[in-house]
Design brief:
The chain has helices at residues 69-95, 127-137, 148-155, 166-169, 179-184, 191-194, 204-207, 209-218, 285-290, and strands spanning 2-8, 16-18, 30-35, 38-51, 65-66, 101-107, 113-119, 140-145, 225-228, 231-239, 244-251, 254-261, 266-269. It has 294 residues and is an alpha+beta fold. It has a five-stranded antiparallel sheet with strand order 2-1-4-3-5, with no helix packed on it. The chain has a five-stranded antiparallel sheet with strand order 12-11-10-9-13, with no helix packed on it. Strands 6-7-8 form a three-stranded mixed sheet, with helices on both faces.
Length: 294
């Protein structure tokens, strides 16, 4: 076992492990640490705890010190310089006529490097741009192409729920989200209703999927043949969260539609029902697939 603290460098960013040494580091304490890209300014996001050696990426570096007022002032100065760097980089992109959208400029805490994050539809030859920027700033320059999900995470904003975007507020990583989840949750497959501010499927589809997966295992599909307390019938519709199933019963010359609790039914034949979404009779699957991208 090894003793560590968790440090974040951005709101909604990943938590990285560092050795606390003899320092008292409560949640929210600002610290200076050494990372692969140099000395950085971070915040304690996980208090001192013991974890398995296998969970640590070696070598485990120690927290250098608790941030001072001078460190905080330097960080604020860097933020001001980042705005100017962003403006200059945008001008240079226009001069070089590159098809790329600048998202963010970031100085490392020790000012040894400036990172520029951008989005683009394809590969961009930015070698001349890097040379131009290096001649202006006289420091190392790095350009990183990111996806539009990452862009939303960096820029932030409000979701359709009215709250801050989950990705920028607290999600430390993106998890795969698929159209299958929207179908199984009975959502309208209208792209404008199931995509987030980034133009990709909403991350919140993933949150409830485990619950739906459990319910699907014990609930008959649409089209399944089931035995009810009133006889054998075929499932016409399913309400997974309510646990209710509408079944068409064959009673001689008459067809009767009754509703039952899923737990009161015995599945005789699951059939070939795929849980087709009742809101959308004609859906462009190719267009929907585009929403699954990064």
């Amino acid at each position: 076992m090894v003793t560590v603290v968790g440090v974040k460098f951005k709101l909604g960013g990943k938590v990285y492990y560092f050795a606390p040494g003899e320092l008292d580091l409560p949640m929210g304490e600002h610290v200076i640490v050494e990372t692969a890209r140099g000395v950085e300014y971070g915040i304690i996001a996980m208090e001192r705890k013991e974890i398995a050696d296998d969970d640590v990426v070696a070598p485990l570096k120690e927290v250098i010190r608790i941030a001072t007022d001078a460190d905080k002032a330097h960080l604020e100065e860097n933020k001001k310089k980042e705005k100017e760097a962003f403006r200059i980089c945008e001008e240079k992109i226009k001069e070089h006529k590159l098809k790329m959208k600048l998202v963010e400029a970031e100085y490392t805490f020790d000012n040894n490097k400036i990172l520029f994050y951008f989005t683009a539809e394809g590969r961009v030859d930015f070698r001349e741009l890097v040379k131009d920027l290096a001649s202006v700033f006289r420091t190392r320059i790095e350009l990183r192409q990111i996806g539009i999900r990452d862009e939303a995470k960096m820029l932030g904003g409000l979701g359709i729920c009215g709250r801050s975007l989950c990705c920028s507020a607290y999600l430390d990583d993106f998890h795969p989200v698929s159209i299958r989840m929207a179908k199984e949750q009975g959502l309208s497959l209208n792209p404008t209703k199931i995509s987030g501010s980034c133009g990709r499927l909403m991350c919140c589809l993933k949150y409830e999927q485990d619950c739906y997966d459990d319910l699907i295992k014990i609930t008959p599909n649409v089209g399944a043949q089931v035995k009810t307390p009133d006889g054998v019938g075929v499932v016409q519709s399913v309400s997974l969260l309510k646990g209710l199933v509408k079944v068409k019963l064959d009673k001689g010359d008459e067809k009767e539609l009754d509703e039952y609790k899923a737990e009161d039914l015995k599945i005789l034949d699951r059939g070939h029902g795929k849980g087709k979404n009742s809101f959308d009779d004609a859906v462009d699957e190719k267009e929907l697939k585009k929403l699954e991208g990064k």
